Amino acid sequence: MNIRLTYLIIFSVFGTLLCYSQDPYFSNFALNLVYLNPSYVSSITNPEIAVSYRNQWPALSGAFVNYGAYVSFPLKKFQSGFGFYFMNDIQGGGIITSTSLNSIYAYKIKINSNINLNAGLQASYFFENMNPENLVFESDLRNTSGPNYADEAFDVLDNNFWDFSLGFMAEVNRLVYIGFSVQHLTQPGRYFSSDDNNTLFRKYSFHAQSQIPLIKGHSKNVPVITPSILFQKHRQHQQINYGSGLLISPLYIGVWAKNNLKFNFSSLTVAAGFIKTNYKIVYNYDFNLTRSNLLDLGMGAHEITFLLNFQYKEKRRNNRQ
């Protein structure tokens, strides 16, 4: 059998086995809630703009690289919020790229003076592209050492589809947030095939985070710990991410662990940055804890998030009769 064809078949088979579980992922999920749960956009009190970048396994020439940006703004008069975000996912050094445009609407239900319930719906449109010409085959390597194999052309494949997500989140005193979301509600087909293994199966996420002042008082500069936990299930793949941050304004540090339900640890995330009232900038690094690449810095992940919060002063009411 032709060597190029053999390698293409092998690549296709392994791609089929793995692609259903590959979604863009951010370790610091508490700073990227808009990607995790569409109901988040009705919980904010001021407009936000954020950009995120992640480079996983930078030692590999085909690392996973994600770029994300979003804008969200509340509609206080209607107890709701709108959001839009862009996500670009690059796999295999550009062999597979996926770009999504996402729009979100969320509504806030006021249960009482302390508890709010947020519900959000997200509509997404994906543009996917696979360029097999970027693959390197054994024959490409042999051509440099003597034998001459004829070049073969492969078609560039495109696949576009709609996708939808749904999320809910409860907030208590604006200090505790508990949420649940379902992504890929319609389970669209992806990666240029109608095979069942190429279905983008539903992903379920449960998350909770809190802000706990370490000193009683009303000062904005008291130290605060921010514990958070995330559980995700995507078909047979399950993972739990948990840890905490410490904010001594404006300095912020944090640490999180990620493992499956059998407590096989996959990564340890450390974070450092600056957090103020109107902006946040946080850098994260994932240490790889798998047996084959234990603490290999080239097999970790770099991640950075910048968030800008627009603060508006409330207009004073005129109490004169």
In short:
With 321 residues, the protein is mostly beta strands.
Please tell me the overall pLDDT.
Answer: 83
Low-confidence stretches: 1-21, 317-321
Main sheet: strands, sense, barrel: 14 strands, antiparallel, barrel
Mind telling me the C-alpha Rg? 22 Å
What is the terminal separation in angstroms?
92 Å
Strand content bin: over 45%
Number of strands: 15
Q: Tell me, what's the shape?
A: globular
Total of DSSP H or I helical runs spanning 4+ residues? 3
Q: What is the N-to-C order of secondary-structure elements (H for helix, E for strand)? A: HHEEEEEHEEEEEEEEEE
What structural class do the secondary elements suggest?
mainly beta
Strand order of the largest sheet: 1-2-3-4-5-6-7-8-10-11-12-13-14-15
> Helicity, in percent?
under 10%
Please describe what this structure looks like:
The chain contains three helices and 15 strands. A hairpin with a 2-residue loop joins strand 10 (224-234) and strand 11 (237-248). The protein has helices at 3-18, 33-36, 138-142, and strands at residues 48-56, 64-75, 80-91, 96-110, 115-130, 157-172, 176-183, 203-210, 212-213, 224-234, 237-248, 251-259, 265-275, 279-288, 301-309. It is mainly β and 321 residues long. A 14-stranded antiparallel barrel has the order 1-2-3-4-5-6-7-8-10-11-12-13-14-15. Residues 1-21 and 317-321 have low confidence and may be disordered. The chain has a domain at 3-219. It is globular and about 75 Å long.
